[in-house]
Amino acid sequence: MTACIVGWSHTAFGKHEGEDVESLIAKVATQAVADAGLEPEDIDEIVLGTYNEGFSPQGFPSSLVLQTSEAFRFKPATRVENACATGSAAIHQGLKTIGARKGRFVLVVGVEKMTALSGKLIGETLLKAAYLKEEGSIEGGFAGVFGHIANQYFQRHGDQSDALAAIAAKNHANGVANPYAQMRKDLGYDFCRMESEKNPYVAGPLKRTDCSLVSDGAAALVLTDVETALTMDKAVVFRAAVQVNDYLPLSRRDITLFEGCEVAWKKAHAEASTQLDDLSFVETHDCFTIAELLEYEAMGLTPRGQGATAALEGWTRKDGRLPVNPSGGLKSKGHPIGATGVSMHIMSSMQLMGEAGDMQLPAPKLAGIFNMGGAAVANYVSILEPLR
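User: That's the sequence. What structure does it adopt?
Assistant: Structure tokens below.
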């Protein structure tokens, strides 16, 4: 690819009382530009990623970024949405601008304010990312969708509750070291494995610890071309950036295979001239623990039906064969829909630049990122490396 990430900013994820989409944007937009060593007037285009669909009463949000600096006025600004992959979709829009040489610097902002709604309305809003004609009556919102997926997988491959608990415990342990994470608490395997008053079943075999958090937050990054990035203080280059979309209805797919994820990974490795063993770590979309388990198989870490091996044998821990979600993932870090994809790219860039603090892995060289919208409908894979 011909683009690099050269600056970023990130709020803590969690419940931000008194904040709205506009104020969350304000916390990251100019900070990301400054982190790149630039001024707002240097930005050629702004891309805002936000899912909304009722989370915020404010429609038409793209020009809210302009509120953060008068120098942004009259810059082109566009809102992008692709369900839970909205942040990556916004990044891809920026990559296209850089690749087409229509701009030198692009500011990408991802944001969501989710916690203002009641639990029932949050579930209904998230379920809009499913195929409502067939899946709109599923109880439990999107947790119900993934509970259905987990049931199908368990029927085919046996009860995998041990593996799901191991995934949850790993990600919560990793999140302790992430200053941006919503839940910085090591819950332990036993707590994640056992049903309790504090960890009840939510949908099918999924317990509360199997589900990502309802979050507010924002993240922003700056993109530029490789030639320009070579003159800047820090730069992370895209070796690959791939998008693959699959059918929306679950009925048209074998949902236990996550085939869109598999195809996206294969295309990304072909584009980057890499293979899975080349990666130092992966940030993957663990909206639910069953999703991370299926993603192990789709990325080729294990054969089909054997994802539990990676979880139970520690392959994906920070000291394992392929660390997965050293940031704590969506499970611990939180999942403000529009910000998630941008956050995943920032977390990976911090690792590659040696700026991850207590999260830091030893000398990572290549990062893989998988961000998805819906149940493996919109599938985005990036492969990143330090430019120098």
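The chain has a mean pLDDT of 97.
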